Every structure is written in C-alpha cells, then in structure tokens.
Amino acid sequence: MKQLGTLYFFCGKMGAGKSTKSKQLAIDKHAVLLSEDEWLSSIYPNQIASFEDYLKFSAQLKPLVKKHVQNILSVGTDVVMDFPANTQKLRKWFLDMASEVNASHQLIFLNLNNGQCLRQIAQRRIEQPERAAFDTESVFIHVTKFFEAPEASEGLNILEFSGKE
C-alpha cells in the first residue's frame, strides 16, 4: 500500500499569521502550497469587493480545489492549504477532503487574541499596501463574528499555537 500525503490546514482569526505559517510549513514539509487568495485573484480578478463577494467566489472554488487536493494526497504528496478553517462547517470540508481518500490531516490553530491580530494586520498594511482596503479593524471585527474555535468533538488532529511562537 502506498503512502498517502498529509493535509495541513489552518484556523485563526484574520491577522493571526495563517499565510505566513503556511508558507513556512510548505517549505519545511516539502509540500504543495495552495493559497485561496492566489486562486481567487487569478480566477476572479478584480471581482471581490466585499466579504459577501469573497464568500460567494470561495464557495464556487471549493469543489474544484477539493478534487485537486485529493489527487495530490493520493499520490503521496503533502498539501498545505492557506484556506481558512475558521468555522465548524469549513473544518468539516477539510476533514472530509482528507478522510474520503484515507489521508491524514493536521489542523494548525493559531490561537491569538484580537489585540495580537490587529497589531499584525496593521503591520501587514504597511508591508502590503495593496491589502490596505481590506485589512482594516472594521473588516476584522466583521469577519471575527463568524470565527469558531476548533473543538475536540470535531474529530480533528489539532496543533495549537498561541502568541509569538
């Protein structure tokens, strides 16, 4: 029986460092990195002007991404997904994606408080000015309302980080 890949995915509030950590993990694990932001901006250029637009296009992307990731896992390659797993429903999507092909998974939970996230968002606005329109405190407050911390009952392999690790 051939070795399957492992699916790595992230949970954390906006600004927690999911993209930064995912890039580093992909390097460390010699894994394929898939970034939702990159896919969305390539497939739907200049079409995402609001959180509602993001939700709509993200949902359209998911069936294609799921099959693609399952194919990669099936040939024994690890996949790091820079897609948020910030609600129970989204985490179930990741879990199903791995379990349907009998691959293992790891949820990395970046458990930072609102103040830590807002400081990192402020820093990101400086480093990536093209994100300044979306990287605001009001957007953070809006999207954080939807955030659900992972729970043991979800059946996930959770690795939790807090603060500056």
From TrEMBL:
Pfam family, one: AAA_33
Classification via InterPro entries: P-loop_NTPase (IPR027417)
Name this protein carries in UniProt: Cell division protein ZipA
